[in-house]
Design goal:
The structure holds 2 protein chains of 2 kinds.
Chain A: H1 12-18, H2 27-37, H3 39-61, H4 93-129, H5 131-146, H6 149-159, H7 164-190, H8 194-201, H9 206-242, H10 254-262, H11 270-297
Chain B: E1 12-23, E2 26-37, E3 41-45, H1 52-59, E4 67-72, E5 75-76, H2 82-89, E6 92-95, H3 109-119, H4 124-137, H5 154-166, E7 172-176, H6 184-201, E8 204-209, H7 212-218, E9 221-226, E10 229-235, H8 236-241, H9 246-253, H10 260-265, E11 306-307, E12 313-314
Parallel strand pairs in B: 3-8, 3-9, 6-7, 7-8
Antiparallel strand pairs in B: 1-2, 1-4, 4-5, 9-10, 10-12, 11-12
Classes of the chains: A mainly alpha, B alpha/beta.
Chain lengths: 303, 319
């Protein structure tokens, strides 16, 4: 039975105490927490940080120069003095792999960030404007997309010649196309949302809508695409260097190191093993991080 | 009930003449004319897909009208460029249907409200005070300015949407089904708040809805839309007391009555079939395919809104 004696009205303070409110958190705080719970993604992130740190500081700390030849020590197996052994000119493979990491990572990051920049602006404008402009802009992307990368490479080889420059041009031409497509798709999806209409009703300029409303809301897929495009660029650089279109000796990238080691694969397998391993671990780490990011950014995708 | 302006001093705020909006072959809005007086609320009702939302969005120039004129405060705003439109954006605002989709999830409530002030160059030092004032005006508190939309309930989000619309101190607000996505208990709160705000700030509303009972509560006049056209327009009480167009009659009879005795005895004229496609609307009177009183000649008639006296307009010639 109801007994009025058993009930007391709450005071004003007690009422607010009873209100359940979790602390205010931004979307990115949530993302970070979800990402940190993903063990593989954290592992990937740690490996990437480690590789970047080694690439930056490693060559300085090593007693060997990346291009110092020592014919007395050529083709040495891994040992205490030369952790990864030496190549046919007696150069320390460990320091060359670290030095190669600089070039490979620089190519990967730079190419990806250039593609991010071009792709986001291009895709954003294309998706937001729509109509004929969109058709023409996406037509251009389709053309770029459909031409195999080898054609750019061969053409550039003829015109510019092998080297870092042609690698950057190749990656620059072809890498922003997928980013532009992703951004366009996101912008197309978002632009008819009511909060975009609300911004238009308030009189926001197209630039403001794109930068303040559309791109921040498309940031998830953009980040994931970026994370996946870095290993792609690293691999492309390795591949181009491997077939002789990349950097040339005495500079070292992972692709060049692998290429140099192939000839003596039967006798000195470790010469190929270490640079190839570095490529694999880096790409794997980026893929783990990318997978984790995709899940963290959109928890509904997680199975 | 006329809010704001007194009966005597009628000021025409918005006049829409023969407004048409086609999307390709789809005739979403097909010749709509009405006017709104300062301080009143015009309800615009109809089934989903009848073009009421498109009408609202075309008036506020989210869509370019295919034909017709929009006159606001005596000035034709039909073909203004975006720059010229900016000053009208301050006068006409909109409240949206879905409180979950109408707020940018990456911005705090305060930033959402502040954005209008940034666009319209309100001095920075005034902005914070105005944000706080607006939050209080819509029944939230200023501590909530730093929170993100997902931390609010549907009703609270709709209040933020209303505060955003009020941030530019508009005269006319187009309410695009502002309550249809909310709980019934919250609906009344929001409608009452809209009414209070109307009295306090002298606002004029175009209130779009498919729920006739809510529209009756808030509107001074009501227009009923069917397939891109207005079929009946009258003072709210008049329309509910003596609906003339067969479509309005059947719409009204479909309002649930929360009293089993009364609702059993009521005559209902439930509509048959679906609303026809606006891609290929029926000839003549577009309602003849579903009209319980249809006559053979209805498929040939060109119907037009006609005054049946006392400001009651009806598009059906047989009433």
């Amino acid at each position: 039975m109801y007994d009025a004696e058993l009930f007391l009205p709450l005071s004003r303070e007690e009422k607010t105490d009873a209100e359940m409110m979790r602390p205010s958190r931004t979307y990115w705080q949530d993302v970070r927490e979800r990402l940190m719970r993903d063990k593989l993604a954290v592992l990937g992130l740690l490996v990437i940080v480690l590789i970047v740190a080694l690439a930056v500081f490693g060559p300085v700390l090593s007693p060997y120069e990346y291009d110092a030849q020592d014919f007395m020590m050529s083709n040495e197996p891994p040992s205490g003095a030369h952790w990864f052994g030496t190549d046919m000119f007696g150069r320390d493979i460990f320091v060359r792999v670290l030095y190669g990491a600089r070039i490979s990572l620089a190519v990967g990051f730079l190419a990806s960030f250039i593609s991010l920049f071009i792709g986001v602006i291009y895709g954003g404008i294309s998706g937001f404007t729509g109509g004929k402009t969109d058709n023409i802009m996406m037509g251009i992307v389709d053309v770029i997309y459909s031409v195999p990368m080898m054609i750019y490479v061969i053409l550039l080889m003829v015109v510019v010649g092998p080297g870092l420059k042609s690698i950057f041009i190749t990656l620059g031409i072809s890498y922003w196309a997928p980013m532009a497509r992703i951004v366009r798709a996101e912008v197309m999806r978002l632009k008819n949302e009511e909060f975009i209409l609300a911004a238009r009703v308030l009189g926001a300029s197209p630039g403001r809508i794109l930068l303040r409303h559309l791109i921040p809301n498309a940031m998830g897929p953009i980040l994931v695409t970026l994370t996946f495009s870095i290993p792609g660029a690293i691999f492309t650089e390795a591949f181009l260097s491997f077939v002789g279109l990349g950097v040339s000796a005495p500079m070292a990238s992972w692709g060049v190191l692998s290429s140099d080691a192939v000839g003596s694969l039967a006798i000195y397998p470790w010469q190929l093993f270490f640079p190839a391993g570095a490529i694999s671990i880096t790409i794997l780490a980026f893929n783990f991080l990318g997978d984790g990011l995709r899940d963290a950014l959109d928890p509904r995708l997680r199975k | 009930m006329l809010a704001g302006a007194k009966r005597g001093e009628v000021i025409m705020l918005l006049k829409v003449e023969n407004l048409k909006k086609y999307f390709g072959n789809i005739r979403s809005v097909d010749g709509v004319s009405f006017s709104i007086q300062k301080g009143e609320t015009l309800g615009l009702v109809g089934e989903s897909g009848c073009g009421k939302t498109t009408t609202g969005r075309t008036i506020i120039k989210l869509y370019e009208p295919t034909e017709g004129r929009i006159i606001y405060g005596g000035q034709d705003i039909t073909s203004l460029t975006p720059d010229e439109m900016l000053s009208f954006r301050k006068k006409i605002q909109m409240i949206f249907q879905d409180p979950y989709a109408s707020l940018n999830p990456r911005m705090t409530a305060g930033d959402i409200i502040r954005e209008a002030m940034i666009i319209h160059r309100i001095p920075r030092d005034e902005q914070q005070d105005r944000v706080n004032h607006l939050l209080r005006l819509v029944g939230l508190n200023s501590e909530q300015a730093g929170r993100y939309p997902h931390e609010f309930s549907g009703g609270q989000r709709q209040r933020i949407g209303i505060a955003r619309a009020l941030a530019v101190e508009p005269e006319l607000i187009i309410c695009d089904e502002p309550i249809s996505a909310l709980d019934v208990s919250i609906q009344a709160q929001i409608v009452n708040m809209l009414e209070d705000l109307q009295h306090e700030l002298g606002l004029t509303y175009l209130f779009i809805a498919h729920d006739l009972s809510m529209v009756r509560h808030i509107s001074s006049r009501v227009a009923v839309m069917y397939l891109g056209r207005i079929v009946e327009l009258a003072e709210s009480e008049e329309l509910y007391a003596s609906p003339k167009h067969p479509y309005t009659v059947s719409l009204l009879s479909s309002i649930p009555i929360p009293d089993p005795d009364k609702s059993d005895s009521r005559e209902t004229t439930a509509l048959q079939g679906e609303i026809p496609s606006a891609l290929n609307p029926p000839s003549g009177c577009t309602f003849h395919t579903r009209c319980p009183k249809a006559k053979p000649e209805c498929s040939m008639l060109k119907t037009q809104l006609a005054d049946t006296g006392n400001g009651h307009f009806c598009a059906c010639p047989f009433v």
